[in-house]
UniProtKB/TrEMBL annotation:
PROSITE patterns: ABC_TRANSPORTER_1, ABC_TRANSPORTER_2. It holds the Pfam family ABC_tran. The lineage of its organism: Bacteria, Bacillati, Bacillota, Clostridia, Lachnospirales. CDD domains: ABC_NikE_OppD_transporters (cd03257). The keyword ATP-binding applies. Residues 9-253 form the ABC transporter domain. Keywords: ATP-binding, Nucleotide-binding, Transport. InterPro entries: AAA+_ATPase (IPR003593), ABC_transp_ATP-bind (IPR050319), ABC_transporter-like_ATP-bd (IPR003439), ABC_transporter-like_CS (IPR017871), Oligopep_ABC_C (IPR013563), P-loop_NTPase (IPR027417). GO terms for molecular function: ATP binding. It comes from the Bacteria. This is ABC transporter ATP-binding protein.
Length: 323
């Protein structure tokens, strides 16, 4: 993917198993391999429960995989401990769906926004006012919001505060976990525009988790599609509807666009619901819902493989030997 771009962060063979009832094991991430490029946005899309958040939590060291590596500039951050782990948090910051749950309601915006700067001794107490004003203005909020409490702000304004706090330490990577999903569509759009603008100004690498493929398309450079813990397709976001080939990606596209619209390729309708991640079928995880599944799909799990310069897919329909 994007061969000439600089890889900042790379997940290699990342698997996460959770123990489940009855001695069973839930595989939330199954051998994930993804790259994040300098100044670019990788969108991670898929239905609820497919393992998006589980994966992104590794990137910000909120959890560690059962197997695999997360390399930040070549160093495996899953092995970091103590002070090294703490210092690394400056490089990769995260914004969650609901900032209210991560904000202390008794803290003023000034203290919320400046907390990371104070924690890492980047500023003195006397510099908080100016730092907060600068950060609020960066996210296009008035500087005097510093004296407000989170509950005196709208959802969109709170999310701007969350972005200001996440960018306070000037991280190289920003992870947005459904960061606009709770907002009204019009507000969502203004937050996306802000993120895109800040990315251009600061050359930030972004990981954008979202269940909405149309939203991802509007702000990501590259899209990775997940299904039941597996990445099934990775491709450029530009003209995604024309280029996507995996039956699941096409079904996701079909769920947002008019089935009758002509995108150059037929759009399959998605059947049924995703099985429980405790009952992932053998072979291709999507085969139970795939209109084109064959015997090979039941017998053998397709591996993610390259089918174009910037395009990978895990689907037997696109195996080289079958072409
Ligand atoms: N700590 C945990 N213990 C057990 N199972 C977990 C744990 N965390 C996640 N899971 C399971 O792993 C699977 C993937 O969850 P995850 O939250 O990563 O999905 P998601 O794609 O982010 O979905 P959503 O958009 O609903 O958050 C789900 O079946 C979930 O129940």
């Amino acid at each position: 993917m994007f061969e000439h771009d600089e890889v900042v962060l790379e997940a290699k063979h990342v698997t996460r198993r959770f123990p489940a009832s009855g001695g069973r094991t839930l595989v939330a991430n199954d051998d994930i391999n993804l790259k994040f490029y300098k100044g670019k946005t990788l969108g991670l899309v898929g239905e609820s429960g497919c393992g998006k958040s589980t994966f992104m939590r590794f990137l910000v060291s909120l959890d560690t995989p059962s197997e695999g590596e997360i390399l930040y500039r070549g160093k495996d951050i899953t092995k970091l401990k103590g002070e090294e782990l703490r210092q690394n948090r400056q490089n990769i910051q995260m914004v969650f769906q609901d900032p209210t749950s991560s904000f202390n309601p008794k803290m003023k915006i000034r203290d919320i926004v400046c907390e990371p700067l104070m924690n890492f001794n980047r500023i003195r107490k006397s510099e908080k006012d100016a730092a907060c004003r600068r950060l609020l203005e960066m996210v296009e909020l008035p500087g005097d919001f510093a004296d407000r409490y989170p509950h005196n702000m709208s959802g969109g304004q709170r999310q701007r505060v969350a972005i200001a706090r996440a960018l306070a330490l000037e991280p190289e990577i920003l992870i947005l976990d459904e960061a606009t999903s709770a907002l009204d569509v019009s507000v969502q759009q203004t937050i996306i525009e802000l993120i895109v603008k800040l990315q251009k100004e600061k050359n930030i690498t972004i990981g954008f988790i979202c269940h909405d493929i149309s939203l991802i398309q509007s702000c990501a450079h590259e899209v990775a599609v997940m299904y039941l813990g597996n990445v099934v397709e990775v491709l450029p976001a530009k003209n995604l509807s024309e280029h996507a080939v995996h039956p699941y990606t096409r079904a996701l596209i079909g769920s947002i666009f008019d089935i009758g619209m002509d995108f150059g390729k037929p759009i399959e309708e998605i059947k049924g619901e995703a099985p429980s991640p405790l009952d992932v079928p053998a072979g291709c995880p999507f085969r139970g819902r795939c209109p084109k599944a064959t015997e090979k799909c039941a017998a053998e799990k397709p591996k993610l493989h390259q089918i174009g310069a910037d395009h990978e897919v895990a689907c037997h329909l696109f195996d080289k030997e079958d072409k």
